[in-house]
Specification:
CATH class: Alpha Beta
Helix content: 25-40%
Distance between the termini: 20 Å
Oligomer: single chain
CATH superfamily: CNF1/YfiH-like putative cysteine hydrolases
Number of domains: 1
Strand order of the largest sheet: 2-1-3-6
Strand content: 15-25%
CATH topology: CNF1/YfiH-like putative cysteine hydrolases
Number of helices: 6
Length: 153
Amino acid sequence: MPIFFVDKSSRKVAAVHCGRMGLEKKILKKLVKIFENTGTSRREILVAIGPSISSSHYLVDPFCYREFIRKIKLFERYEYQNKIERLQKYYNYSQKDLNPLDLKKYAYLQLINEDILSKNIDISKECTFSLSKEFYSYRRSKTSLRQWNFISG
């Protein structure tokens, strides 16, 4: 998923592509630290999380899901467990088969854990998997085509 950072005072910008492995490796935490090391207050950072696959289309096996949760070490397991149960009933699959993984939500939570103000984080609701006319998706069509994202200061 594309994630854009802006320091609203100095107009410094950064863009990263962050998926499951990027979240596991805490790429967002590292980028926030880079901004801070160059004089940016965490409270001045604006973040936009762009269109990406939604949790209902990003299904992972139980091992992958457990490892992801273990590696990111965030706190809200109970809330997420309730969401999984609701999705399982809706999509009619069992937890032992596949688990939906909400990358946008975990990116947001990592940013909150880094003291980025929630009012400074915008999250696109668009799903690149379900919007086939607007976005390419490797998971949907195994295409090698990609989206391009830009930010300027």
